[in-house]
């Protein structure tokens, strides 16, 4: 490519500028939200204070008072963390078995798991409400959300772990067998150390998906187990009155996740395309 | 001790029979090479002996003991894999120690053995590195080290040199041979490279489609191949096969003659064939001449001296050493 | 225990959980879709229990198919999904090619670019519809107000004033009306999912055969020919996958519609199901079955494509 690169020195500069512009443009709404979160509600809607204003932390300090932020955040953390743990506990053995002891049906099982992910959630909205409210009495509980979040992420988690486990060379496992390692030893001494990175990023991605989920968390909760998605959805139209405080609570809800997301960009591709793009 | 006996061993993957009933005896201390084209079942056979695959029927005996249903680690065998199969998250020392640790050996004894193996394999300076920081040849040594420390009854090698470059391969070949001379432990070595087979083996087992075509010493196989397949597989360049009229006059369906047993001779002095030179490959020590236009064999390869002056398009006359001609019937079996 | 048995045992919890998750609610939906079932009806209280005696056959389906709302929702679902797909794929390919080559600060640009994808949908919608797209208080309103002020100022300017006096006063667009709120949803989802497309196309571009490109340069191919005959075919598969995955995600788009369009008449299938589910469960279920069928059409193609690469 050296030939092309040398003839286009001008285009290289303009590409750089253009690339930066695109990057900044895409980030701008997030930047704008963060900037607004440091304005008082009154200043936030005044054009003359677009960029020059006295920053204030009040919106963050008053998050509890204005929105009861920490209660919703705690619900988000509880449901996302436990759903992630539960998904991994169920997903790891399953992916392990499929990767190292594949049978003729393994492929079909995997495909079927994926197909459950493609079922539109809305189609089973009422049965879910009916079952959990009238029948099981678990509507608007942490337990329900943890269960549902686990189930909707289980196919992706199994799939991701499967692709990671499959990348571990068979011969290494066989070498372990020759060296006299037990089944449990194989998992502890060889498999977990080798797949550690994959398991960690799978967990991270699963956590992000749980945190951002916005159908079941909105439809299956009212107050007790309501998460940040529900909180934001409930304050959808402040009509300009509360731009500052709404920005603060939004930024607090998405900030940590964006940072976590930066760490698992690569895994995202694998996780969302089910290994079909490499 | 390390006498390994296979009795009527078969292997099926689903409905596909990859090893039809097979009998083989490997004597203690022998260096046995399984050789054959890819897909001939040689690796599967090795994995059956190792216990990494279950036999479908038949028995495997090691030193008289039936190990057919014994897990791999209890068979007292050590294996060196094609991809080395080192544990990437462990240092060289830990890799070599792993089988000892699994066997519950005490640390002092472990260290003595590791040091001994490392010295023998020139790995002393690398013990604290990870496999990722080593070259291909060094990784291969670590894999061998991991096998040696266990003091196994037999070593199993699964194409261990095929991932190395040509120069390194020749060196490692010698080292493994020397190791065998020193240890005198049974070794079973799988390769598709007949040069490796010829240079290293005490006994070669030629396999095709899971069947044993011939078992014997390298020179036995070279001199008296039992059929056309073995004849064509052993020896480089490949044996020339000639069918048709010329074969018929000698009472065979096909005759075979190795390039080194064909000579260029002046016209009319016992020449059997006449043809035109296509390509002459000058190696310095030898010249391989590919001759076209010979009835029933095109091209015929001739091995001549390094200094021979032959060019593309020349017409040459060829004769063969009649006592070195192999005769085969229509099914490829040797006729004597 | 044999290996086979152990393997099956280890898979059981996951398989069982997903089986229950898929079968139980879906079969209930299927059942509800064939009976008269409403939550409140004073004249016909017997319809408020899901009893088999309320069997309606394909009545709910006929009712749904006759409903103007249904066809509007289907049309709107397809319009929204189609627009998002077109925009994200086009932008995604262009941006991926733009940042595929090394330039100063590429790592930072990547991080900036991917960020929108991790914003939770509820925040995405609230942020865009209020702080950016609002016709008065959002950036849109402020920007248009600014431009109008500038034009008014320039009208009085000497020499060029006549030119600006020909300009109309710009009207900000309200994104809360039925039709325009669909545009708002398209804008915000495109913003969120373009990074996803970029990420996947970039991953794929990294694996493009550089020697093949060099061979093409030697064969005299220009930048356009390289793009047209090498890069685009190489991206064919990832594009297909991006299209299908997004189609499945966006067919069940909900939070954005709920936040942007509640009560203004704009709807897609999931939102319509939500509306029906407030009272008419039979209709909601029948609509749900239609949504399943629609998603399955896409899913079959996607699964087939993924299945091909699964075991190698």
UniProtKB/TrEMBL annotation, chain A:
Keywords from the UniProt entry: Cell membrane, Membrane, Transmembrane, Transmembrane helix, Transport
Primary localization class, coarse: membrane
One BP annotation, GO: transmembrane transport
Domain ABC transmembrane type-1: 73-264
PROSITE patterns attached to this UniProt entry: ABC_TM1 (PS50928)
TM region(s), chain numbering: 17-35, 72-97, 109-131, 143-165, 190-211, 242-264
SUPFAM superfamilies: MetI-like
Presence of keyword Nucleotide-binding: no
Domain of life: Bacteria
Topology within the bilayer: Multi-pass membrane protein
Any one of the GO CC terms: plasma membrane
Cellular localisation: Cell membrane
Pfam families in UniProt: BPD_transp_1
Family membership: Belongs to the binding-protein-dependent transport system permease family.
Protein name per the record: Sorbitol/mannitol transport system permease protein
Classification lineage: Bacteria, Pseudomonadati, Pseudomonadota, Alphaproteobacteria, Hyphomicrobiales
From TrEMBL, chain B:
InterPro entries referenced in this protein's UniProt entry, alphabetically: AAA+_ATPase, ABC_transporter-like_ATP-bd, ABC_transporter-like_CS, ABC_transpr_MalK-like, ABC_transpr_MalK/UgpC-like, Mo/tungstate-bd_C_term_dom, NA-bd_OB-fold, P-loop_NTPase
GO molecular function, one term: ATP hydrolysis activity
Membrane topology value: Peripheral membrane protein
GO-annotated cellular components: ATP-binding cassette (ABC) transporter complex, substrate-binding subunit-containing; maltose transport complex
Location in the cell: Cell inner membrane
Annotated ABC transporter domain residues: 4-234
Listed SUPFAM superfamilies: MOP-like, P-loop containing nucleoside triphosphate hydrolases
Keyword vocabulary terms for this entry: ATP-binding, Nucleotide-binding, Transport
Domain of life: Bacteria
Range of residues in the leader sequence: none
Transport among keywords: yes
A Pfam family this chain is assigned to: ABC_tran
Alphabetized PROSITE patterns for the sequence: ABC_TRANSPORTER_1 (PS00211), ABC_TRANSPORTER_2 (PS50893)
Mitochondrion found in the keyword field: no
Gene3D superfamilies assigned: 2.40.50.100, Nucleic acid-binding proteins (2.40.50.140), P-loop containing nucleotide triphosphate hydrolases (3.40.50.300)
Family indicated by similarity: Belongs to the ABC transporter superfamily.
PANTHER family recorded: MALTODEXTRIN IMPORT ATP-BINDING PROTEIN MSMX, MALTOSE_MALTODEXTRIN IMPORT ATP-BINDING PROTEIN MALK
Name assigned to this protein: Sorbitol ABC transporter ATP-binding protein/mannitol ABC transporter ATP-binding protein
Native source organism of the sequence: Cohaesibacter marisflavi
From TrEMBL, chain C:
Keywords: Cell membrane, Membrane, Transmembrane, Transmembrane helix, Transport
Segments forming domain ABC transmembrane type-1: 74-302
Subcellular location(s) of the protein: Cell membrane
Principal location: membrane
Gene3D superfamilies: MetI-like
InterPro entries found in the cross-reference section: MetI-like, MetI-like_sf
GO biological process entries: transmembrane transport
Keyword Cell membrane: yes
GO cellular component: plasma membrane
PROSITE patterns from the UniProt entry: ABC_TM1
Membrane topology value: Multi-pass membrane protein
Keyword Membrane applies: yes
Spans through the membrane: 12-34, 78-99, 111-133, 182-203, 235-255, 281-303
Protein family membership: Belongs to the binding-protein-dependent transport system permease family.
Name listed for the protein in its UniProt record: Sorbitol/mannitol transport system permease protein
Organism name: Cohaesibacter marisflavi
């Amino acid at each position: 490519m050296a030939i092309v690169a040398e003839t286009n020195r001008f285009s290289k500069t303009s590409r750089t500028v253009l690339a930066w512009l695109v990057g900044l443009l895409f980030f701008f709404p997030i930047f704008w939200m963060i900037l607004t979160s440091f304005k008082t509600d009154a200043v936030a809607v005044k054009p003359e204070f677009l960029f020059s204003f006295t920053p204030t932390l009040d919106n963050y300090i008053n998050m509890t008072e204005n929105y009861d932020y920490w209660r919703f955040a705690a619900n988000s953390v509880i449901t996302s963390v436990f759903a992630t743990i539960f998904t991994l506990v169920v997903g790891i053995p399953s992916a392990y078995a499929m990767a190292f002891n594949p049978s003729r049906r393994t492929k079909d099982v995997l495909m079927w798991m994926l197909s459950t992910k493609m079922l539109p959630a809305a189609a089973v909205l009422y049965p879910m409400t009916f079952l959990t409210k009238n029948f099981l009495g678990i509507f608007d509980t942490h337990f329900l959300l943890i269960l549902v979040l686990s189930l909707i992420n289980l196919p992706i988690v199994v799939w991701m772990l499967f692709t990671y486990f499959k990348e571990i060379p068979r011969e290494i496992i066989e070498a372990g067998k020759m060296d006299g390692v037990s089944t449990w030893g194989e998992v502890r001494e060889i498999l977990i150390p080798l797949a550690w990175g994959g398991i960690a990023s799978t967990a991270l991605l699963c956590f992000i998906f749980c945190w951002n989920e916005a159908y079941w968390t909105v439809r299956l909760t009212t107050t007790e187990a309501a998460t940040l998605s529900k909180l934001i959805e409930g304050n959808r139209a402040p009509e300009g009155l509360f731009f500052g405080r709404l920005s603060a609570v939004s930024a607090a809800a998405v900030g940590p996740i964006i940072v976590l997301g930066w760490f698992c960009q690569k895994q995202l591709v694998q996780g969302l395309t089910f290994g079909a793009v490499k | 001790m390390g006498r390994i006996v296979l009795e009527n061993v078969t292997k099926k993957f689903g409905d596909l029979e990859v090893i039809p009933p097979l009998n083989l005896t490997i004597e203690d201390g022998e260096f046995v090479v399984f050789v054959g084209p890819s897909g001939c079942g040689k690796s599967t056979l090795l994995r059956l002996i190792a216990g990494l695959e279950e036999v479908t029927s038949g028995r495997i005996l090691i030193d008289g003991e039936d190990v057919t249903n014994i897990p791999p680690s209890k068979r007292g065998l050590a294996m060196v894999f094609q991809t080395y199969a080192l544990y990437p998250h462990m240092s060289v020392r830990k890799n070599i120690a792993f089988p000892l640790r699994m066997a519950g050996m005490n640390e002092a004894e472990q260290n003595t053995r590791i040091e001994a193996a490392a010295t023998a394999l020139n790995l002393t300076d690398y013990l604290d590195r990870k496999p990722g920081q080593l070259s291909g040849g060094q990784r291969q040594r670590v894999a061998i080290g991991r096998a040696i420390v266990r003091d196994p009854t037999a070593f199993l090698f699964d194409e261990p040199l095929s991932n190395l470059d040509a120069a390194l391969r020749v060196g490692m070949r010698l080292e493994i041979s020397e190791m065998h001379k020193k240890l005198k432990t049974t070794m079973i070595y799988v390769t598709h490279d007949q040069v490796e087979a010829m240079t290293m083996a005490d006994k070669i087992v030629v396999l095709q489609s899971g069947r044993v075509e011939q078992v014997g010493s390298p020179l036995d196989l070279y001199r008296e191949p039992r059929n056309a397949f073995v004849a064509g597989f052993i020896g480089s360049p490949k044996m020339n096969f000639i069918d048709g009229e010329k074969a018929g006059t000698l009472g065979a369906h096909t005759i075979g003659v190795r390039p080194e047993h064909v000579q260029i001779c002046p016209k009319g002095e016992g020449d059997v064939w006449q043809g035109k030179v296509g390509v002459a490959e000058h190696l310095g020590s030898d010249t391989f001449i590919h001759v076209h236009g010979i009835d029933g064999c095109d091209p015929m390869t001739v091995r001549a001296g390094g200094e021979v002056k032959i060019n593309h398009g020349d017409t040459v006359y060829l004769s063969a050493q009649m006592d070195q001609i192999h005769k085969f019937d229509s099914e490829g079996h040797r006729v004597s | 225990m044999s290996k086979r048995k152990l393997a099956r045992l280890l898979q059981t919890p996951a398989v069982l959980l997903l089986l229950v998750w898929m079968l139980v609610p879906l079969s209930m939906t299927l059942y509800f879709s064939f009976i008269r079932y409403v939550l409140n009806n004073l004249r016909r209280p017997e319809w408020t229990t899901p009893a088999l005696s309320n069997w309606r056959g394909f009545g709910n389906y006929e009712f749904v198919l006759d409903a103007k709302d249904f066809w509007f929702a289907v049309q709107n679902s397809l319009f929204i999904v189609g627009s998002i797909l077109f925009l994200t794929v086009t932008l995604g390919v262009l941006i991926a090619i733009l940042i595929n080559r090394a330039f100063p600060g590429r790592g930072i640009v990547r991080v900036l670019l991917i960020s929108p994808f991790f914003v939770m949908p509820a925040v995405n919608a609230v942020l865009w519809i209020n702080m950016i797209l609002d016709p008065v208080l959002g950036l849109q309103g402020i920007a248009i107000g600014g431009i109008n002020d500038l034009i008014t100022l320039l009208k009085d300017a000497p020499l060029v004033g006549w030119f600006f006096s020909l300009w109309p006063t710009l009207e900000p667009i309200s994104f809360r009306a039925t039709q325009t709120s669909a545009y708002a949803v398209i804008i915000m989802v495109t913003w969120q999912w373009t990074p996803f497309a970029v990420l996947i196309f970039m991953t794929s571009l990294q694996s493009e055969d550089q020697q093949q490109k060099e061979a093409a340069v030697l064969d005299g191919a220009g930048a356009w020919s390289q793009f047209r005959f090498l890069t685009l075919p190489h991206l064919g598969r990832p594009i297909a996958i991006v299209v299908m995955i997004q189609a499945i995600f966006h067919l069940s788009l909900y939070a954005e519609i709920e936040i942007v369009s509640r009560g203004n008449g704009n709807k897609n299938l999931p939102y319509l199901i939500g509306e029906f589910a407030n009272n008419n469960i039979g209709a909601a279920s029948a609509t749900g079955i239609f949504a399943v069928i629609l998603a399955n059409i896409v899913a079959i193609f996607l699964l087939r494509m993924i299945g091909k690469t699964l075991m190698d």
